[in-house]
């Protein structure tokens, strides 16, 4: 889950893209990049790091033009440490294309081969996004034989891209001298929306991963890009749209609502904040049916993402909600950091207990999810050190039991604390006195009730059902093997073990 944005304006867009990327920073902390275009010339700056560190004044000055795009990266393919894999990616033919991608292709390894052998295209990194760009370039080359380029030709190319690539993808692509193209995979797994603003110079159109980027930069939300749909915005700001997939259905990733997205975003008509409140409400019912609420003195969230769920749960239980952990605002999100060793170290750097909220009390700690168990194991320990009598733990999401292949970096089952472990075994591992999980159906209901017209959720990490239906055992192995050679020593060792023992999801 990276954050992507694209803008067409009549005024300079460098600062606007920077501001939008800051609003999407929670979606990726490893690298950031911006490309702008003036006429047909494109200007790029990308590097490892968060937005504030990557762009200095001199870099911003070197990004002129009124069209552009940007990305904040959280790698799910390739390597977090490789600057070359930071986005955007550029190819010079046809036209000059620059692309940003959120998601993960499940057939990147096969496509890479095919691109080289058949299409005569060379891929220079391990990034699936570079593969995606080259497939699009190849198809656009075929579709756009007659010039000037028309929206029709662009849509034809996107239809061909849908037929070739598999997995999840929300994409924004700049076609130098023509405009911006945005499209979303046929299941709408990763989010993408667009909005407009009237600026003194004329109309401005922005495409972004989350509505918060539109709102925070003064754009009026227009709508989500539909699954399979392509939206082409020409240089005058005219929006052309076309459904380019054969059987599109809307199955947004449920993990966006659990953890990934900002609570103030609305995705596919569903408020992320309300979804989290609802999950807190249903989790409360689970708690009540598991233990007498009289055994709980206080409800404490594990900041940041669990707050809305914990708040609602406390209210439902009729128990006080207390901020027992203080978050160091200068430490980023630990789950999306590269490498297990740095994630472990960061939990204690990030969170610290306020002893008076724990001393002699039975505390119910609430998190939005337990994935590798890194956070909960440390936090339970910290609660005990702070003097808690009993430490109960509740998760607003169900156990994460299966790898994710659609843009969340958990490619192997062996790294998941809930894989092949019973709830009792997980409880023992994290050292809690009780552990209560949301169940899968309740989670889907809690979120799905906010938009009755969706077809369902992509919830494979919880239910093992991979919505694209075409991820082969070979794809799983290729993705895990690719990640095994990246990350840190601890990640690598785990992935290698997983590869030895399994070749199925
Ligand atoms: O079981 P784990 O592998 O530790 O992963 C789950 C934890 O990671 C996330 O927090 P994170 O610190 O990334 O971000 P937040 O501040 O948004 O909660 C999530 O909210 C859980 O707390
Ligand atoms: N999280 C993402 O969306 C990642 C995008 C792309 N697969 C990369 O690794 O750079
Ligand atoms: Mg958290």
UniProtKB/TrEMBL annotation:
<dbReference type="GO" id="GO:0004044">
    <property type="term" value="F:amidophosphoribosyltransferase activity"/>
</dbReference>
<feature type="active site" description="Nucleophile">
    <location>
        <position position="2"/>
    </location>
</feature>
<keyword id="KW-0658">Purine biosynthesis</keyword>
<comment type="similarity">
    <text>In the C-terminal section; belongs to the purine/pyrimidine phosphoribosyltransferase family.</text>
</comment>
<keyword id="KW-0479">Metal-binding</keyword>
<feature type="binding site">
    <location>
        <position position="367"/>
    </location>
    <ligand>
        <name>Mg(2+)</name>
    </ligand>
</feature>
<dbReference type="InterPro" id="IPR005854">
    <property type="entry name" value="PurF"/>
</dbReference>
<keyword id="KW-0808">Transferase</keyword>
<keyword id="KW-0328">Glycosyltransferase</keyword>
<comment type="pathway">
    <text>Purine metabolism; IMP biosynthesis via de novo pathway; N(1)-(5-phospho-D-ribosyl)glycinamide from 5-phospho-alpha-D-ribose 1-diphosphate: step 1/2.</text>
</comment>
<feature type="binding site">
    <location>
        <position position="305"/>
    </location>
    <ligand>
        <name>Mg(2+)</name>
    </ligand>
</feature>
<dbReference type="GO" id="GO:0006189">
    <property type="term" value="P:'de novo' IMP biosynthetic process"/>
</dbReference>
<dbReference type="InterPro" id="IPR029057">
    <property type="entry name" value="PRTase-like"/>
</dbReference>
<dbReference type="Pfam" id="PF00156">
    <property type="entry name" value="Pribosyltran"/>
</dbReference>
<dbReference type="InterPro" id="IPR029055">
    <property type="entry name" value="Ntn_hydrolases_N"/>
</dbReference>
<keyword id="KW-0315">Glutamine amidotransferase</keyword>
<dbReference type="InterPro" id="IPR035584">
    <property type="entry name" value="PurF_N"/>
</dbReference>
<feature type="region of interest" description="Disordered">
    <location>
        <begin position="482"/>
        <end position="505"/>
    </location>
</feature>
<dbReference type="InterPro" id="IPR017932">
    <property type="entry name" value="GATase_2_dom"/>
</dbReference>
<dbReference type="GO" id="GO:0009113">
    <property type="term" value="P:purine nucleobase biosynthetic process"/>
</dbReference>
<dbReference type="GO" id="GO:0000287">
    <property type="term" value="F:magnesium ion binding"/>
</dbReference>
<dbReference type="Pfam" id="PF13522">
    <property type="entry name" value="GATase_6"/>
</dbReference>
<comment type="function">
    <text>Catalyzes the formation of phosphoribosylamine from phosphoribosylpyrophosphate (PRPP) and glutamine.</text>
</comment>
<keyword id="KW-0460">Magnesium</keyword>
<feature type="domain" description="Glutamine amidotransferase type-2">
    <location>
        <begin position="2"/>
        <end position="236"/>
    </location>
</feature>
<protein>
    <recommendedName>
        <fullName>Amidophosphoribosyltransferase</fullName>
        <ecNumber>2.4.2.14</ecNumber>
    </recommendedName>
</protein>
<dbReference type="InterPro" id="IPR000836">
    <property type="entry name" value="PRTase_dom"/>
</dbReference>
<feature type="binding site">
    <location>
        <position position="368"/>
    </location>
    <ligand>
        <name>Mg(2+)</name>
    </ligand>
</feature>
